[in-house]
Amino acid sequence: MDEYASFPSTPISSQPNTPGWYTPSANGQGRGGYHANPSEPPSYFPQFQPNPPQVSINDKIKVPPPILLRYAGTNTLSNKGCLKIHVPGWATTLIQPPQIFATGERLAPQDDTVLTGSLEVIMKERRKVQAISVGVQSVCRLWMGDTRGWEEDGVFERGVEVLGGNEEGIWLEQGSQSFSFNILLPATLATTNWHKFGRLSYIITARVQGVSPAPYSNFPSLFKANTSMHLDPEIRFVHDFEKVIAHSAHVLEEERRGRAREVGLSPVRGKGRSTSKGGVVGHMRDLSLGSGDTADPITHGRTPSPSMGGHYTRRQNAENPPTSPPTESDLSKHLQPRSEKTGWMKGDLVQSRELWIQATSPVTGDVVPLDMRRESFVEGLGPWKFRASADVFAIAAVILIDFRLPLPSPTTSIFLLRLTLSQRYTLTSPRTPDLPPYEPQPAQDFVIYQVGKPGRQGERFPGLDVGALWRGTEVEGKIAESEEGKKGVSSKGQSQEGWKIKAVARLPTHDKIRPSTNEGTITPIRVSHELIIQVYYSCYGEKLNGEKINGPGELRRMTSRSPIHVPSCHCIDEALHLPPYDFLPPPSSSSGIDSVISSPPDKKKWCMCGPSFEELGKAAMEKDRIRETLEEQMEEEEGGGAGGSRDAERVGRLRVRAEANARNKATSGGSGGSGGSR
């Protein structure tokens, strides 16, 4: 018999209620302390205002505070059933971060994401349980330098839970039954990230709570740190979660022992246990970590104040609602033996799986196209134009490259064109949010396209025997062999019409680079990217400083850097849009549905990294060919003369701008520029 129930999706509380408020220390070292009065927030803590029209990013925290994570399960697992967690998209969830304006203002988060799924409970026989819960947990592990070393902290926990309500509990029938759940994920939530010196990951945990096998063992377990996590060993970085959960259990144990001493409740089993209303009732209210009265620090994020636990939305089982508030006699029933003879399941059922959180476009929430255009003027190369385009831009995406030198100097020799993606990341510990970000390693450069060679190693004046991609009419020398079909189509050779090259390049996959971090995301790991264009060339008979010499000129390097936002490889049409109805034939039976749900991800539809370079490149070149044909037709209709005059005017403006920049740098004493640096 199938049973269907639904977890609530609306948080039951949004006001802080934590044991202490984290405050930065007066000496500015960032270690901080705890506010003396736990019932009142610090004076600097602003009043919560739902959905403000705009908020300044400078007033918002950039890193989530550390929290304690609860453990799923006890030391004893039940053999009466098993659990399966079903979530769409192969456990990959896309969120839309808050939109940032050029003025530094941003819209308040309004597009929170609801993680929808189902928990399948398969029972061997009919049993009743105390509670059913599903939650999302996140842990970060950061290397904060030789002095501090590695730091592991819980940074997010949110879930839903259904309680049995009374002695009737929740009955689970023999066979399979499903419970749907909805968990709200904030728009500012940190995304999945991993690097050599830092990582942030997510898991989904599920628990069906039975009774402890030994009588009276439920109550003393309040003061016993539980270190059996029962997490799936196949989860990547599972040891990070085990370490944080074990530490959380230890902290809670010490806290509960302290509370027990305050109210005269001995944690030692046996006689002498206080049964006063303030003792038993007070402690039975703390049976679960992360009560519904705890605010989510990531959602409201007004100050780096830690929450003692995650936010769980709880409700009583609809079949057995409580008729009145619990009394001392009701709570004392928890101390009475419960056994399988009365229908209770002994032990717990637990399950866990990895969850990926990635971000879409803050503006549209859809796929992100690329149309980057750059142009400038460099002595020797003249005006240059660069364009990179893609219909869907993301990690592992294919981009079309168009680089043009319409009027290079007739004494110029071009040896190499290189396109590099540079990635850097910074770490901010949740324990010290007011300290400057820490950069554990230099920027990493990934060459995504290169044609030609810069000459022999250490050679300052490449000779005429060195193969060049292009040489001017006043330079006699070797022309490199054509690499047409391998590196793209280029107009190599001596020409007065300039030099251009069109090619297809691909960004590295997600095993090498990570998505750029959105400005509105609250995360301890921030990633940024730059696109670097480099051209190696020389001017015959000239040094870098313009001094005239006899023979080949000195090797020069033109470098242009442009910041670029690289979306996640999961931001593709297949992940963001529903497929057509006739895309797949309907399964013939329910077993067919189960096979689809439990099947591994289809790499070609899960993310951009799946399809091959050949598949993506062929489609991109065909689209570019059609676009070029249309542009040529439009130019013919408008007339070539006007277009030529516009190009001449643009070249003149670029030359004037470049000369002005050179004069400013010379006046300020700065060295280096777009061209002339080695």
TrEMBL record:
Residue spans of biased composition, Basic and acidic residues class: 330-343, 646-662
TM spans (from-to): none
Composition bias type Gly residues, residue spans:
669-678
* Chain spans, region Disordered: 1-51, 255-344, 627-678
Q: Where is the composition biased (Pro residues)?
A: 39-51
Lineage: superkingdom? Eukaryota
Could you tell me where the Polar residues compositional bias lies? 7-28, 318-329
Coiled-coil stretches: none
Q: What is this protein called?
A: Arrestin-like N-terminal domain-containing protein
**Record lineage:** Eukaryota, Fungi, Dikarya, Basidiomycota, Agaricomycotina
